[in-house]
Amino acid sequence: MPAQAQSVRPVGRSSRDWTLADQVYDRLITLIADGTFPEHSKLPTETSLSEQFGVSRPVLRQALKRLREEGLILSRQGSGSYVQRRPDSEQLDFAPVGSIADIQRTFEFRRTIECAAASLSASRATAEQIDRIAAALAQHAGLPDDGSEQAAVDLSDEQFHTAIFAGCENHYFLAARTSLQPQIAASMTLSRGLAQGDVQIVHRQVLAEHEAILAAIRDRDADAAAVAMCRHLDAERGRMFEGLPAGV
């Protein structure tokens, strides 16, 4: 049986709230949604799934029971379990951050959407919208760099990124960023203990990266804005995960 991935409990949830069965359910529903397990297909055996997910069969059965109750699968005695339908959109909402791997996936998604958002904002943002981006950056710059007002720093960071999305003039981008905000906040909280480097140095690095993004947007340079945002997110990810064991 493969070793289980290192797990970090989601912020604000106890181990009773977020169980191994929840994690297996989340992985199964994703595999059904993306077509790995198509509608009307037979799921692998319980033994096979248990080995694939690195959990016991009782844990797997809890996840399967939930899928049955939601009408996603049908179990036939002596035959196995079959996919009845794909999950509804409500069931595919962004899942809670539950592990270091989830933080990495959040960064992967953010890099895709936020670099594009910075590019669009450079092309489309109004002068007023650019002023809002600048105001969020100015607020961040005016806060202590010693971590004593971290909540205010996090808020100004969120306002900066949200203002960039507003400048896209595309409500789908802003809706996606808003929907992902709980996961981003949880990732920031979980990863703060992983972050490498002096707090004051990191504060100044983030400000410099934000300044580069704003400068490109002000210059109406879409390519430079995308590059600056990608560099910022790559640097942020590096500050969090540098020094962690390979494969974590």
TrEMBL record:
SMART domains in alphabetical order: FCD, HTH_GNTR
Task: Give the stretches traversing the membrane.
Answer: none
Which SUPFAM superfamilies does the UniProt record give?
GntR ligand-binding domain-like (SSF48008), Winged helix' DNA-binding domain (SSF46785)
UniProt keyword terms in alphabetical order: DNA-binding, Transcription, Transcription regulation
* Domain HTH gntR-type stretches: 18-86
Please give the Pfam families that the UniProt record associates with this protein. Answer: FCD, GntR
Provide any one GO MF term from the record: DNA-binding transcription factor activity
Entry-linked PROSITE patterns: HTH_GNTR
Record's keyword annotation contains Chloroplast: no
Q: What is this protein called?
A: FCD domain-containing protein
> Which species is listed as the source?
Oceanomicrobium pacificus
